[in-house]
Amino acid sequence: MIDKLMMLVLTCLAVIVSVMALTSYLPHVDHVRLEEEVRKGRSVLADIDRLQPYTTQAPHDDLVCNLPVRKTKAVLALYVSDLAARRNGVRRLDETGSFSVQVFRANAMRRVRDVLVCAPLDGDMWYRLSLISFILNMERGMTEAYLAWSERTAPQELWIKTDRDAFARRYLGGSEPISTLR
Q1: 93/33 Cα distance (integer angstroms)
Q2: Could you read off the pLDDT of 144-174 as tens digits, one per residue?
Q3: pLDDT < 50 positions in the chain
Q4: What's the pTM value of the predicted model, to 2 decimals?
Q5: Can you give the chain as a three-state secondary structure string?
Q6: What is the pLDDT of residues 23-32, one digit of tens each?
């Protein structure tokens, strides 16, 4: 009798946890699809207005360390930041742009940091943080530290390493411009 009751309680608990996880993820499904398109090269200026409520939502609205959602929000915030820069005529990372572009960049930085709270070993997000710190004219030492963390956490992931090394060459050597954060 006790075993059956315990099994019933555990089953109900598992169902409740599953439903909570599913309902916390469902509102993000369309954004996950959009993130995939963004990673493949999507660049539609009209997405700024569509994504602004999603990417500027307060971080405390996210479940604690719901990494897929946080990463989606970070990638889409970076995307919106790039779109805002493009809309305002910013062509290179070392161009500051208008105040509104800087606000988008700062929001993207906050979103990337939100990911790193949950996944401090995410080399891609450390690399993105170094790019944003460079754009926002933060201390060079901070940008270099973020690059170093990216190197430590993802030394051999080619898709990160290639972009990171190119940024380091351009940033430290001052050669050709980089056009986007993504």
Answers
A1: 27
A2: 999 999 999 998 899 899 999 898 888 767 5
A3: 176-177
A4: 0.76
A5: CHHHHHHHHHHHHHHHHHHHHHHHHHHHHHHHHHHHHHHCCCCCCCHHHHHHHHHCCCHHHCCCCCHHHHHHHHHHHHHHHHHHHHHCCCCCCCCCCCHHHHHHHHHHHHHHHHHHHHCCCCHHHHHHHHHHHHHCCCCHHHHHHHHHHHHHHCCCCHHHHHHHHHHHHHHHHCCCCCCCCC
A6: 555 566 777 7
The architecture that CATH gives domain 27-173 is Alpha Horseshoe (1.25)
User: Distance of CA 163 to CAs 100, 105, 128, 167, 179, Å?
Assistant: 26, 19, 10, 6, 12
C-alpha 144/C-alpha 148 separation (Å) is: 6
Q: Ramachandran region of residue 41, left (φ > 0), alpha (ψ -120 to 50) or beta?
A: left
Residue reference for tokens 């699809």:
33
Tell me how crowded residue 54 is: count the other CB atoms within 10 A of its CB. 17
Q: How far apart are the first and last CA of the chain?
A: 58
